[in-house]
Recover the amino acids of this structure.
């Protein structure tokens, strides 16, 4: 177990949903597991003037809801004693000076400081400026780290502008760009599945792999996020961050070690090796659509334009792209990335289709390796075996391996990432080069899609992938891999 320095976590946006649902309960769970440093303190910063006793009562209500009042009283007392509240009213010119003065009390607050910015993206740069203005980013006597939530910019230009602003005060080793997908155990399992099993490495090349699919589909719609979503779209919301990271983990070369520096270096290399999508062949490499009125789980639901109340929107709720990686390993292998709202099933998975055997047999199907991230953590390998009998026929046999078995520790993504933050481990956080590489690839597509005001293809809510999306496939026999059956459960 890595030793963690005593430190103070400063949570901006303490009253927001992320803090209430994920951060505070996640820290409590880490405390109950004995994973927090002995003298850690948690200072929640909010705009409202709230008494510390009232804030601690509020924390109790958060934990009661999350854990249904089923937690150890001694752990609760210890955790509550770690928590403090600091009001930072937006109209107080001395707010950050007061914050600095309070944190300077070393008898209460350990001087290693981590700031978690669970705030509006437009506030990231200004908060870092204000922290630096009162000396809270200075590492001359203790470490200082800043967590920045996604999105890191809305395109390459804004990402670079944000980077330029915060690096006036912070070194790269102080910046923790968080993508909660990287905290998921099943996603981390991709690396170990690949590199801890030598049988896979010889197969992980263009000589054996037909294509790769990176998928995130949801039955949910945009809900109350209509205005945010219409300014963002599926490409920015899911592909630029989460799915490009899944792609990088699936296709990167083996790192020299599993250190943060070596893992990030290989992810950067592979992301920077992806060939830009040719804009003159955009319709062969990309597909976008919106969900219309339909039925999900036997319930009638509105279409996207009805929810938005704007019939002119061309923003995509379904996005599919085709990439190629310009390296010897992946020469000519198409990598299909797709995400959608209001599809017939919810799943996040990596599906790898292997090339057919040179020996052709009747009813011979394909070999697939499917790594399911959610709703279940599962790995499936599909192979062909002979059907017993007098004829030479084969059928598909699935070799199923749950990544989680009874008794395994269940860790929320934010719990894992918070622990890494305190340890100073950046391997599950994004380097600026990864962020820039993703934006560099997707910016031209986003711009072209936004400029095209022609009506967007519509698919009924609750339906499978639109048949028209197959236009991006290299071969007519390629198809979207759907959820897999495990007993009576679907993955």
């Amino acid at each position: 177990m890595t030793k963690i320095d005593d430190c103070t976590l400063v949570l901006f946006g303490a009253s927001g949903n992320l803090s209430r649902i994920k951060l505070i309960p996640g820290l409590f769970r880490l405390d109950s597991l004995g994973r927090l440093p002995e003298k850690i303190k948690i200072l929640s910063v909010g705009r409202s003037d709230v008494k510390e006793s009232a804030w601690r009562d509020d924390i109790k209500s958060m934990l009661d809801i999350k854990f249904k009042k089923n937690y150890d009283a001694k752990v609760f007392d210890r955790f509550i004693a770690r928590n403090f509240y600091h009001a930072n009213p937006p109209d107080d010119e001395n707010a950050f000076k007061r914050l600095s003065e309070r944190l300077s009390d070393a008898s209460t607050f350990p001087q290693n400081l981590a700031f978690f910015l669970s705030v509006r993206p437009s506030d990231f740069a200004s908060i870092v400026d204000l922290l630096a203005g009162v000396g809270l980013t200075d590492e001359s006597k203790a470490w200082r780290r800043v967590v920045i939530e996604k999105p890191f910019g809305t395109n390459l230009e804004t990402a670079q502008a944000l980077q330029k602003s915060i690096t006036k005060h912070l070194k790269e080793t102080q910046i923790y760009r968080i993508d909660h997908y990287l905290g998921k155990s099943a996603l981390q399992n991709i690396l170990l599945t690949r590199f801890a099993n030598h049988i896979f490495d010889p197969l992980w090349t263009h000589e054996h792999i037909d294509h790769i699919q990176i998928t995130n589909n949801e039955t949910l719609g945009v809900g109350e996020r209509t205005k945010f979503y219409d300014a963002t779209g599926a490409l920015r919301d899911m592909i630029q961050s989460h799915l490009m990271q899944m792609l990088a983990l699936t296709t990167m070369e083996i790192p020299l070690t599993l250190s943060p520096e070596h893992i990030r270096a290989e992810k950067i290399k592979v992301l920077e090796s992806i060939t830009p999508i040719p804009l003159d062949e955009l319709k062969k490499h990309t597909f976008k659509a919106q969900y219309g009125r339909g039925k999900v789980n036997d319930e009638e639901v509105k279409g996207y334009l009805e929810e938005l109340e704007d019939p002119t929107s061309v923003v995509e709720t379904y996005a599919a792209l085709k990439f190629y990686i310009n390296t010897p390993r992946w020469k000519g292998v198409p990598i299909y990335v797709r995400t959608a709202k209001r599809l017939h099933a919810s799943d996040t998975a990596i599906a790898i289709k292997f090339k057919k055997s040179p020996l052709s047999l009747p009813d011979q199907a394909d070999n697939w390796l499917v790594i399911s991230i959610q709703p279940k953590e599962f790995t499936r390998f599909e192979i062909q075996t002979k059907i017993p009998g007098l004829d030479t026929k084969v059928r598909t046999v699935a070799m199923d391996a749950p990544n989680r078995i009874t008794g395994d520790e269940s860790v929320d993504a934010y719990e894992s990432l918070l622990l890494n933050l305190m340890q100073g481990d950046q391997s599950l956080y994004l380097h600026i080069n990864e962020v820039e590489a993703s934006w560099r690839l997707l910016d031209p597509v986003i711009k072209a899609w936004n400029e095209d005001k022609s009506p967007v293809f519509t698919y009924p809510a609750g339906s499978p992938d639109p048949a028209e999306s197959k236009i991006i496939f290299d071969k007519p026999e390629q198809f979207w891999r759907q959820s897999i059956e495990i007993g009576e459960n679907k993955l």
About this structure: The chain is about 35% helix and 20% strand. Residues 8-149 form a domain with the Rossmann fold fold (CATH 3.40.50.720). Residues 486-491 have pLDDT under 50 and may be disordered. The two ends are 33 Å apart (CA to CA).
